[in-house]
Structures are given as structure tokens and as C-alpha cells.
């Protein structure tokens, strides 16, 4: 039987590549995001039988509810929730950061993610489905300017582990995927539209691609049903760890 994935944030980056990967694998995809024209283009590219576009701002709980209530019959049985929509805002140290940037990250990466998860859980339990939550290496390793972004992703990772405990015995699988540097619109968004800063960050670094992440999510989702990947951290070979910093008088 054809399976259905609800993938948030499919207008760009990981989400768009993952939507294409799952449709190529024979799944139906509910594709979400604010940019309606990009979702429409995805529907035209992959076919209305395979993709349903649900246009809403994920921070708007009422709009989310309306979009979920309006799902066509063929897309109602959700087998996989991929909580991917998210963002970083700003790179400044906490003492210089904008409070509205912090609020936007918390609203999107945390509040919206738990709201949608709570809504979809009964269906996932009914269908012995799965959840893949997109966290980040920023959940595990602090770096200057990572402050609230890292905090939101640490929440996502810990929430995922908590879900595993609560869903014990239901057959529902939960994975948190923690990628490092990958070239998408992520840095453009983080810098409020600075394309040069984005290009400079990725230049010569061979970052991961959205396709790398899509293939990994596909692998996680298509493992035999008795296996659960709890958490998976991945980086490009060009990225690794640096030591502690020491302030001297
Ligand atoms: P992109 O900026 O390319 O894509 C982000 C997606 O999230 C877009 O489709 C965007 O849709 C959606 N989104 C953001 N805010 C909202 C909102 N308020 N309502 C609805 N949709 C929203 O970035 P990535 O693909 O890189 O990011 C995907 C996820 O991966 C994020 O959670 C990010 O934190 C995480 N991540 C990214 C890494 C990277 O290096 N790229 C590494 C580790 C994790 P739209 O703007 O149309 O609404
Ligand atoms: C994105 C990876 O290193 O920019 O989550 O925080 S990083």
C-alpha cells in the first residue's frame, strides 16, 4: 500500500530534496511551507497524485489545524512525520542578539514542532508509523553565536528521546537526525539575506548537500520495522571539532 509522509519545510533545502526522494520511492508526500509558488512548482514537477501542497506558516497553530483538516482523503493516513521546517537567525553573541530572532527560532523550531507532532501522534500510533526530527550538531556542540539556535535543537533531540519512551510498545519509531554543515538556504536565512556570507561559508568546504540528508532520511525510514535509529549525527569530512577557548587577563 502507498505510504504517506508529512514533510515540513519542503520549499527549499532538505525538505524539498526529501520530498523528491520519497516520491521517487513511491510514497505520497504532504509538502508544507509558506512559499506557495514553490510548493505549487513541486506539485507540478512530481504530480498531484503524489504531492499535496499545504501552505501555512508553521508558527500559526490555527492555520496548521485548518491545513490538516483540509487534507484530501488520499493524504489523510500519515505514516511518517518529518519535522524539518526550522531556521537559525543571527550569529551574534547572546549579549548582542536580537530578541525577536530568538523568539522566531523558539516559535518555529520548538513550539511549532511540538504542536504538529501532538496533532499527528494519534494517526502515527494507529498506523505504527514513524517520526524523523531534524535537529543539528548545534544540539551537541556549543559554538559562539549558536546560543538559542543550539538550545532549540538540543530541545528537539531530547524531545525525540522522550517521545521514544512515551511511545514504547506502540511500534512507532522516532529518530533525531543531527546534521552539521550542509549547503541550503540555511545561511542566507540566518544572515537575513546575505548571499555573500553564505557563499563564503561554504566556499571550498565541500559541505553536505540536501540530497545527502534526503538519502539518509530515506534509509532511516525504510529500515526493517523492528529497527529504530535513535539519533544520527553526520558531518561533511571537511568539518570537525575545535577545542575550548580561554579568556586571558
Ligand atoms: P532552508 O532554509 O533551505 O529550508 C528551511 C525550510 O523551513 C523552508 O522550506 C521554509 O519554508 C521552512 N520554514 C521555515 N520557517 C517556516 C515557517 N515559519 N513556516 C513554515 N515553514 C517554515 O534550510 P535547511 O533545509 O538547511 O533546513 C531544514 C532544517 O534542517 C532546519 O530545521 C535546520 O535548522 C536544519 N539543519 C540545517 C543544517 C544546515 O547546515 N543546512 C544543519 C543541521 C540542521 P518557507 O520559508 O517557504 O516557509
Ligand atoms: C546547522 C549547523 O553548524 O550551522 O544546524 O549550527 S550549524
| Named CATH architecture | 3-Layer(aba) Sandwich
Cα gyration radius (Å): 18 Å
Uncertain regions: pLDDT < 50 for 5+ in a row?
A: none
Q: Sheet bearing the most strands, described?
A: 7 strands, parallel
Give the % helix.
Answer: 40-55%
Strand content: 5-15%
- CATH superfamily, by name, is NAD(P)-binding Rossmann-like Domain
Bound molecules: NADPH dihydro-nicotinamide-adenine-dinucleotide phosphate, 2-hydroxyethylsulfonic acid
Strand order, largest beta sheet: 3-2-1-4-5-6-7
The overall average pLDDT, rounded, is 98
Q: How many domain modules?
A: 1
Distance between the first and last residues' Cα: 66 Å
With helices defined by DSSP (H or I, 4 residues minimum), what is the helix count? 8
Describe how the helices and strands are arranged.
Elements (H helix, E strand, L loop, with lengths): L3 E4 L5 H12 L3 E6 L2 H11 L4 E5 L5 H9 L10 E4 L15 H28 L3 E5 L12 H20 L6 E7 L6 H5 L4 H8 L7 H12 L9 E4 L15
Parallel strand pairs: 1-2, 1-4, 2-3, 4-5, 5-6, 6-7
Helix pairs in contact: 1-8, 4-5
The structure holds NADPH dihydro-nicotinamide-adenine-dinucleotide phosphate and 2-hydroxyethylsulfonic acid.
Q: Gist?
A:
The chain is an alpha/beta fold. The chain has helices at residues 13-24, 36-46, 61-69, 99-126, 147-166, 186-190, 195-202, 210-221; strands at residues 4-7, 28-33, 51-55, 80-83, 130-134, 173-179, 231-234.
Amino acid at each position: 500500500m502507498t505510504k504517506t509522509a508529512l514533510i515540513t519545510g519542503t520549499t527549499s533545502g532538505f525538505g524539498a530534496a526529501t520530498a523528491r526522494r520519497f516520491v521517487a520511492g513511491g510514497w505520497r508526500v504532504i509538502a508544507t511551507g509558506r512559499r506557495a509558488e514553490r510548493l505549487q512548482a513541486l506539485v507540478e514537477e512530481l504530480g498531484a497524485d503524489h504531492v499535496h501542497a499545504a501552505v501555512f506558516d508553521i508558527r500559526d497553530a490555527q492555520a496548521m489545524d485548518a491545513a490538516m483538516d483540509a487534507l484530501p482523503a488520499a493524504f489523510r493516513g500519515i505514516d511518517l512525520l518529518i519535522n524539518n521546517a526550522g531556521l537559525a537567525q543571527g550569529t551574534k553573541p547572546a549579549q548582542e542578539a536580537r530578541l525577536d530572532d530568538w523568539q522566531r527560532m523558539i516559535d518555529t523550531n520548538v513550539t511549532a514542532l511540538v504542536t504538529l507532532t501532538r496533532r499527528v501522534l494519534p494517526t502515527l500510533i494507529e498506523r505504527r508509523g514513524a517520526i524523523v526530527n531534524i535537529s543539528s550538531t548545534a544540539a551537541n556542540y556549543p559554538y559562539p553565536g549558536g546560543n538559542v539556535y543550539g538550545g532549540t535543537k538540543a530541545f528537539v533531540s531530547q524531545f525525540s528521546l522522550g517521545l521514544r519512551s512515551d511511545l514504547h510498545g506502540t511500534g512507532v519509531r522516532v529518530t533525531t537526525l543531527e546534521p552539521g554543515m550542509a549547503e541550503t538556504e540555511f545561511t542566507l536565512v540566518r544572515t537575513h539575506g546575505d548571499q555573500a556570507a553564505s557563499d563564503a561559508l561554504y566556499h571550498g568546504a565541500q559541505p553536505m548537500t540536501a540530497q545527502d540528508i534526503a538519502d539518509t532520511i530515506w534509509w532511516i525510514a525504510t529500515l526493517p520495522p523492528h529497527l529504530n535509529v535513535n539519533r544520527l549525527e553526520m558531518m561533511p569530512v571537511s568539518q570537525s571539532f575545535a577545542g575550548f577557548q580561554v579568556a586571558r587577563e
